[in-house]
Amino acid sequence: MAVKGTTNNPRGRPKGTPNKVTKEMREWIKEIINEQRPQLKKDLKQLDPVERWRIVEKLLQYVLPKMQSIEGHLNFNKMTDEDLNKLANELVKTNNDIIEEAENED
């Protein structure tokens, strides 16, 4: 009799690899959606704007990662003059890069 937690394959499936059924189901659902894409577009256009955007908002969570706020605290009193100068130079460089990028877009 097998000991709990052990298998005949000690290496097992690599971490992150979906099981066969899950992979097949995802492919099947993807195929259905791709085949129905023109009809889905027509159906969305027939909805009132509020309902259409509600659906788009729900679908976005599967495409775009949710943003999270991050909070950082810098204690300038504990930073050396060298650290402060490095930080200031990085801020100026970043600001210049952003300005340059915006000018190149125009």
List its traits:
mainly alpha; 106 residues; single chain; 0% strand
Description:
59% of the residues lie in helices and 0% in strands. With 106 residues, it is mostly helical. Among the domains are: 20-60, no CATH class; 76-105.
Q: What does the secondary structure layout of this molecule look like, with pairings?
A:
Layout: H1 20-35, H2 37-46, H3 49-60, H4 81-105
- Note the overall shape: flat
Report how far the terminal alpha carbons are from each other: 72 Å
What proportion strand?
Answer: under 5%
From N to C, what is the helix and strand string?
HHHH
> What structural category characterises the helix and strand content?
mainly alpha
Number of DSSP helical runs: 4
Cα radius of gyration in angstroms: 26 Å
| Portion in helices | 55-70%
Strand count, sense and barrel status of the largest sheet are: none
Low-confidence stretches: none
Q: Tell me how many strands there are.
A: 0
Mean residue pLDDT? 85
In short:
This protein has 106 residues and is mainly α. The protein is built from four helices and no strands. It is flat and about 60 Å long.
